[in-house]
Amino acid sequence: MIRRLRHHVRRTAMTDARALQDAAPRDAAPNDPEAPGGEAVRAPALRPSLLDPLFAPARTLPGIGPKMAPLIEKLLGTPEREARVVDLLFHLPQGGVARKLMGSVGEAPVGEPVTLGVTVVEHRPAQIGSGRRPHRVVVEDASGHDITLVFFGMPRPRVEKMLPLGAHRYITGRIDLWDGTRQMVHPSRIVDEAGLAELPAVEPVYGATEGLTSRAINKLAVAALDRLPVLPEWQDAAWLEKNRLPAFADALRAEHRPEEAPPKAEDPLQPPPATPSRKRLAYDELLASQLALALLRARQRRKAGRVNAGDGALSGRIEATLPFALTGAQARAVAEIRADLAAPRRMLRLLQGDVGSGKTAVALLALASAVEAGRQGALMAPTEILARQHFERLKPLAGSLRLRLMTGRDRAAERKSTLADLAAGEIDILVGTHALFQEAVTFRDLGLAVVDEQHRFGVHQRLALGAKGEAVDFLVMTATPIPRTLALTFFGDMDVSVLDEKPAGRQPIRTITLPTERIDEVVAGLARAIAGGERVYWICPLVEESEFIDLAAAAERFDDLQRHFGAAVGLIHGKMPGPEKDAAMARFAAGETKLLVSTTVVEVGVDVPEATIMVIEHAERFGLAQLHQLRGRVGRGSKASSCLLLYRGPLGQVSRARLEMMRSSEDGFRIAEADLKLRGEGEVLGTRQSGLAAFRLARIESDGALLEAARDDARMIVERDPGLKSPRGQALRGLLYLFEREAAIRLIGAG
Fold this sequence. Notes:
This protein has 751 residues and is α/β, with parallel strands linked by helices. The strands form four sheets. A seven-stranded parallel β-sheet has the order 11-12-10-13-14-9-15, sandwiched between helices.
């Protein structure tokens, strides 16, 4: 869910934890877990006292004083709560430095942490008045090979005290090459013979923050291990033995007190293989997540539903009049949705498809089925542009269905009329934005809600819409292909329909990569294309030029292209008022402007079939799936289309791999999987930017097999022991609390 999720998931995504919190009973409405709003204070979870030491504040650990406490909060605390002991335990090392001595400087690999035994040969202190020039110390090994140690900003007396001339020392750090000379900048360890004997075999390396070193974090993590209680085992002993995995507590100890350096990735673009201890911890976290979702899903299944499908006559007539035949994938999705609507249980289904795969037609036929059953439908989109576009697309296809559009910009009289007609049942399908779930909006009998781009809404908003009808079925749509592992993680409580075919007649899109130095050639080519009647998108990463980031800006590029093409150039970006954006899009769609300069506001859903050229400037700065979504704005008609990816070199390894994937494939699902592997789920979902990963111990990009196993295990647990009352079930309750899925326990109690 890829680039678009990057901006919105942390704030509003339906992660399993938030979905559970939203579904769990509240004090204000204990018998109605889908009460709208969410303003009521939730009842605190009764955590087993056994876990209390782990959820105590981290500042209670020995060694955390007034100076260190704020640093721990900066690293591990959140705006909602202070850092706790469990946060230190789950802050696992990112790697480790082995203390194995290298035989000589010549054998030591460049770019990797090493430990060397050396003798101090010469000091080359910075000259007074030389600014930020470093103090250099030349040392050599027993074979006479030398290396230079570099210290910036460190007082000369301190360096000379650590490294007296002629002294033998053991140094640890990373060797780099500078002008062909080996050097080590600020060694992490400088010890004598006695100090070497006290060093651990492997020193863990943690993600740190300014003022708090990795070594200090390790000391605190080891202190936190002393607080770890003996927990009842939730994994079967035979299963652990078969998979060669340690006990939970042993796994945590092995991570924070490693005896061997962690394995390295053979491919620098892939995560390193997991150790048995890391695998055990990752599986536990994934099991907690999947068990919580399985409990939520079981609860959803227990809720009474209503049949929301009629005899098929209305939807059949609409399908017969469509200007195209349904693809096999569309027909399959429609059949799956109709089966859900016809069943006496509530539907919660995710419809995902690649750009241009035909989700709108599927949604229309689903809504028609609800209207056949005498009920109403709603389609909610995240932006006014998309809501209007959905309405304009549906109107000519809807036949006798009575459609109406509602947005926040409706005039008072227009809004009053819409509300009255909706309550009276004079509207079959209401299309709109966030305005749909406002308190004044009353349906006569809402049966099906279609939510486009679910990740842009909060779960409370979806539940508020569902509360406007009795046993409302939900169809959630996303235009971003989601890797299977992410779908299981973030939409595990939903059934999934996939549109993996494109409608007949769609032309392939030729993708070309060019350095920005050739931009004049691109502009000349566009002049010829526009003269031939083509329409062009030109995407820039910023709205206005930034003095801090040297990237093309939409406003600057608009001015530049206007000098070439005059009034044929339009501009649209997210900072423009809604009416201005609508007007700019309308002019481009009508052909009044031929070249539209834009930010990524056109990324989702904007449909101008006549547009055949997409130029993306500074393509190296965009995520893979966002590039794919932007490319999907062209190739929507019958003409051949092209996408030009302009990049500024030199390209890094990941950027090069990303652009090569775009050149070689148009398969959104393949691209989504590659994006996950290149960036990891935290980056893909936009959570690393805020300091909060979707998972703390598991790596979704590499733990897909574990996730599948955890999902199967969770389903079996809920089928056999839905109340978690067996001995293993009781232990699993502790697992849910430990990974803060305690809302699942409240679901069990609510029945």
